[in-house]
Specification:
homodimer; 119 residues; Transcription Regulator spoIIAA; 5 strands; STAS_dom_sf (chains A, B); STAS_dom (chains A, B); STAS domain-containing protein (chains A, B); Bact_StressResp_Reg (chains A, B)
Amino acid sequence: MESIPILHMGDFLLVTIQIDIHDLVALNLQDNLTQRIAETGARGVLIDISGLDMVDSYIARVIGNIALMSRVLDAETVLVGMQPYVAITLVEMGVTLAGVRTALNADKGMTMLRNMAIN
Amino acid sequence: MESIPILHMGDFLLVTIQIDIHDLVALNLQDNLTQRIAETGARGVLIDISGLDMVDSYIARVIGNIALMSRVLDAETVLVGMQPYVAITLVEMGVTLAGVRTALNADKGMTMLRNMAIN
């Protein structure tokens, strides 16, 4: 089965979503990510979606769930790299990504995570 | 056209290859990456292939070329996350990945890049 790689970098985990994630791939990502947070004691998760041309409500919900699960395990989630037209479409669809922090790009997202880890 | 996202983090660029790259996607990655190195003045490129179950000689050559191009632009390339059976297959196929530095995982690869950037 396809699975999305999770990169461990310092205190943080990095996930780059490049393919449309549906059903099993999404569940698999949630499983693997929570497992990796527990194993590594990571303080934050950076999710990059710059490779996605389209984010539907299902993917948005998966990302929201990942953020909630990570928070329970004491890791903050920052979503980065959203294409401008993806942001427009999400708002037009009424998807708010409540509870998910966002940053413009991976660099800014990593800075945000570092600041959160210090406080 | 499908394109592989390039993440800019501090002094380095990060590429996670999750899909089989062929022809146009590979050329596109070379173009984008060299462009981004020039734009950002990045000192290193981390290429993660932990999501690949198979690395054929074409992909190995693309990675080798990327390393050569990056070096000309004063950026070192480190390849990380190779699955053990991928390493076995590459050696059995006679692919040596000459000129490409490797590290076990993204964390070690990033440390390697940082040390190279200091020296």
